Amino acid sequence: MRELLKALDESGKPIRVSIIGCGRFGSMMVAQIRRAPGMTLSVVCDANGQRALDALHQAGYDPAAAVTTSTVSDANDAIRNGDIVATDSADIAIQSEVDVVVEVTGNPDAGARHCFEAISAGKHVVNVTVEADVLVGPMLKQLADQAGLVYSLVYGDQPAIIEELYDWAVSLGFEVVAAGKGTQYVTDYRNGSPDDALLRYGYKSDDDLSGLNAEMYNSFLDGTKSAVEMCAVANMTGLVPDLPGMHTPPASIEDIPRLLIPKEDGGILSQKGVVEVISCLREDGSYIENSLRWGVYVVITSDSPYLQGCLRDYGVPMDPTGKYGLMYRPYHLVGMEAPISIAKAFLYKEPTGAPRGIVAEVAAAAKKSLQPGEVLGGEGSHTVYGSIVAAAQAKQQRLLPIGFCAWATVTRPIAEDQMLSYEDVKLPEGGFAYHLRLVQDGTPSDAPRVG
Questions:
Q1: Domain 2-156+337-348: which topology?
Q2: What is the pLDDT of residues 309-358, one digit of tens each?
Q3: Which part of the chain has CATH 3.90.1210.10?
């Protein structure tokens, strides 16, 4: 890859990248792309135009040199001149002469629309908004495939890193017993509020928290983000949740191959081939030493006692029976690793992870008793949290995906921790992701076409 990227620089034709969304993840990408070989930042976009300029400044660009324009034509002139376009218009970010569009808004409805429109405009798509992927990723991938384009989840975020470990293991002939990520979680966090999420996450009251999204950080803590990410992994790999909501046990690295194995071998799983999250916190909130707080893992086994012994001989953490081993990566570097997805999409026409189908869903569950007329928030809000369930259960019970909750109105009483169904709410009209989901599920006949 590095030689191919170097050749692009030498030819004067680097990969032209457009980024939509300049929060923490997007700002990391802006800074890393400035230093990555073979690609150039052509458009940086945020609904708050000043945030786009701030991201450029933070990355080491001169924001005063960025071109601000209201037309695609002028943006194209700037791109051909080698300039960076800073804009608050997603249309300019998508329709301009770029090769790869990166969606980083974190908003499932906007994310679905931006990905769809980018594919329609003939652009490869790297999707950071995994909330949109678990809603309509299979449809987006199908449309991209039909157009000869790449739809990809982003390298550096946990789902694509887990997919890489899973692909490594299966390609070698190992059986994957469990795959997942570390996080910080205790049961009390499930009903947590965004009001104090940043403090619970570890920030101090005198830190500058103005640029951080409290609801997003609350979703990291209340289990929703973990459910979304493991749903994406399930849809990419075919692995399933062992039970609704997963186990989420507290564990050190050494504990993982002892816990995440079948019950008959001393573990907690009722089956092999599952997605699972582990916590770096005990239920009393104390930290576990040598945890996988920032990392990802796969638990693997082999039907060969000889190979099982070889894993142990080469230092792989094993369970007491010696049958199950742990391969893990201690860190994921978020937006700093995203250029790998951009390069793979452009150079190899391959994703760093994309859904194969709908294996799991993230159902909305009530954080408190809800009454008719209450308006719901979305991911990380005061009202609901996300719980991963098997797709068959979600379909049978018509469970409401958490991605459709924002601004939905409750229509009948809901008990605390009850999973919501479509019949429990009135959804707001005009949602693009909801329409695309209906198309994905085969409901209407007016399927959108690329081109």
A1: Rossmann fold (3.40.50)
A2: 999 999 999 999 999 999 999 999 999 999 999 999 999 999 999 999 99
A3: 360-440
Quick: pLDDT tens for 4-26: 999 999 999 999 999 999 999 99
pLDDT tens per residue across span 293-313:
999 999 999 999 999 999 999
Q: What does the angle CA 308 – CA 314 – CA 319 come to, to the nearest 5 degrees?
A: 50
Would the pTM count as exceeding 0.70? yes
Domain 360-440 has CATH 3.30.980.10: no
- CATH 3.40.50.720 residue window(s) in the chain: 2-156+337-348
